[in-house]
Amino acid sequence: MIYLKNIQIETIEDVRKALQTAIELEHSTIPPYLTAMFTLFETGNNEISKLIGSVVVEEMLHLSIACNLMNAIGGKPVLNQPGFIPTYPGPLPGGVDSGLIVPIAKFTKDLMKDVFMAIEEPEDPIKIKSFMMMKGAEDKLTIGMFYDKIAKQLTFLEAEAKLKGKTIFTGDSTYQMTNEKWFPAKELFPIKDLITALKGINIIVDQGEGTSTDPFISEKDLGPGEATEPAHYYRFEEIYKGRKLVKDPNAESGYSYSGDPIPCDESKIPNMAKNPKMSDYPVDSPAYVNSKFFNYTYTNLLNSLHITFNGAPEKIDTAMGLMYSLRLYALRLLKLPSPNQPGYTAGPSYEYITNDNLTPSEKDQYMENKVNV
Amino acid sequence: MAYLNSPRLTFSGKFQADPSTVNNDVNHYNNATFQPSYQEYGEGGTNGWWNPDGTGNWRLIDCVITSVTYMDGTTTSDPGKDPIIGMSIMDANSRVAGKIVDLDPQQQSVSQIWGMIVRIGQGETDFVKGNFEPIAFNDIWWNRSTTQKGSGGASASYQSVVTDLQWSEVESKSRYLEELRKESPDRLSMKFNVDMFNQQHDSAHFTIGRIVGSIGPSRMDEPKHFIMGRQFVSDLTCNQGMYMPLSTSVYVANGLLQEETKQFILDLGNFLQTAGPEGAIAESRTLVLAANVGGEAYVPLGELNFKLPKWYENRGGLVKIRLTDEQVDMVRNCPLAIMNQQSDGSLSPLVKELTHYVRADQFVFRMNSGEESNIDFYATYLGKPMVNQAIVCQFQDSLINIMGQGDGTPATSTPNILAFEPGVVTDTNGKATLTVKASNPQNPRGFIDGQVYALWYYLEGYPTVDFTFTIKDGNPVVLPAALSGIDPTNFISILVFDSVKPEVIAKPDWDKDVQPVMQQYANLYPLMSKGIFNLANREVVDNNAKLLRFVFDLPREDPNHMPVTRDLSRDKKQMILNYLDRAIKENALADLSTAERIIQST
Fold this sequence. Notes:
By secondary structure, chain A is mainly alpha-helical.
């Protein structure tokens, strides 16, 4: 389970800071999830790939909601700084030292259990199987508690403002990013007041953790007619258990992993070396060059999202174009041998680089060759 | 004006061109005979050539600014004098890369760059950025390198304008940038040469090559894609259908007289041979610019200074010749020549200036029935506009055949469905515009859409040589063995698409109308069909209808435009949009999150 530092949230500036942490946190899960999913390409594990992909998309949605909320209260989301991307392997942003180290790794069932489920673990997981109960201590918060704290403080601050005939929702409404091409309107909507703010936060928490009594995403967050899905934690557990989660009157909790099987065949999954880094690869290797292209694309994606959430919401279209590009470079890396690591393939490293980054040797060479007149 | 003028900068670095090459063989467009092996690496029509997994991306990589020249004509390459030296010329930092696109499998010698952003700056700071207007390469030199073979030994050049400039208010402390902004606030001129291209797919530098170029001011009333200056084109010899400067070992150059600074700037970026894996300039002769003052009398103006180490990278392939007042007069009024200085000091002309010159500015067009394209011609004499000069334009059947790959089938250039006046006359700026109107070619090539045409043009009354391309009895193509004063790459390429019946556009049937088009894209662009969407599959198309509708409807200039090959006709595009609209309406699934589909693919 991830615990966040129990930060003080009192002023509107505190809420903005907390939201920036939320944005960084939502983003930080995407590289490890995406990587696991990329390694499932053409391995016959489509069902698992789809489950992980559905979580990635919801993390993207959560990031978008957090950014909209930040803009709604006059904050400024930052997504384009080198420090925005956490170091992998490492803890997630805003967290306390819980011993959970998140890697960039190929798909394995153990990765689901040891990392992905640990990231998404709710405060009180429903005892579908017996779980050791963990309670948030006073100095730390679960992700759900963290959002709850933001929601409570927003409510308080807005009430306080209302008394003075004011509102905390002072942001420019044209900054709100909604786009039905990418996210349904019932999930991504303009945040303009307390009601829409709380609705947004509720979607984040419910999709991520579920409620304390129901592992499935509440139907009111999805709208009628939507196929209900388990919250993230349970989706990863479905993969780990190899069966769909279903209602089960015979089970103590009312649910069990006794649905359709989710087959898993790890034999074709590329043996990606864990936690790849561009600097692992010799400059003169295809792995280095493609890693650089992947990282350009990733950096461009963050830049593009930053622009999107700082006044140009229509630029979400260009960000989505970059998602495709990212996928192509990741798949290419997974086909390349990792130099100096026999038996392993290269992989995506998610590093912030600018596209004038010369390697030190390239820079030296350039300066040596300079001829002044 | 344009990039040879002041204030200009030079840069060098690398580029990536990563096209899919399954479509390098026209027969691969035939869905009925398509084989899976066409998507595999390997030369020849039975395979997918050198890069079947290409993304289509075009990128600038590690391009460093190597020198700047100020309004007063002085040049520096010292970052201590101007901080812009050592900074970068970069492409997009918040959207996908630009795209490199062939016009047609039967005209592959005009690969265009689409959707490239150009930024001058450092890292995430750009002092100015804009859009590179799409243009094809020109003047391909097949055997520039004396040692490297194939594409690795070839070179070509691109020239266009960077538009929609956004200047940053961040202070650059660069005198150069201040001068550039003042001189050319709205548009920049950019020229670059590409060579040393790597087609070995196991190499780290696969799809990467060398780029060397210049950026300078641009005036709104001047051509965008060539310099209205002094033109030098070597004598050429036909070698297996390709023209090469076998007798001179130099290729094409152009120059500009700057009267204010009393300088002559000559672009030798695609003029000198190279050798070795590093592409070092291999010209050992002493070359001199001279004015032809009458008969065979030449007055030397200055040596071409290209022998300093790394001159090509550090000076963008440009040389500068300082002139006296008297020499300025001479350059203004006399034909020029690039001379070869013999060991005894005597000079003999290597390449004479093409005194009377005509160029079509944009020279690649895609058209549909009923559409008109305007072709802008500029005629010059010694770099000055030729007024009231007639320009002749005519069909040229055989040019296209020699520029593609394959054996010339299916036949190109027929039927003759382009309508245009046989000639136009230049105005006081030396400019003349020819309007070409297309009608429906009615699918003359069968399995591939439309037809590709070449138009040849020349100045009336100035036929410098007797020059004709002919086809004897349909085949084989017979080309002149040698050319003098002619640039055979200066012709116009036009792709005209087939029309589709209005009732089919309005109500397309998946199996009959849409699937064959999508199957062709799936075949020819395997990275897309295998890695993201298999467009040949109706379920995939229907489930992704919203997203596909969006990308198919993007303008060609957008780097996310689909298809990446930019060869979908107006009618077929509308047909597909109509199909997708219907799928969106009928398919309840299309209401699901599209973002999810991006992530999950196929």
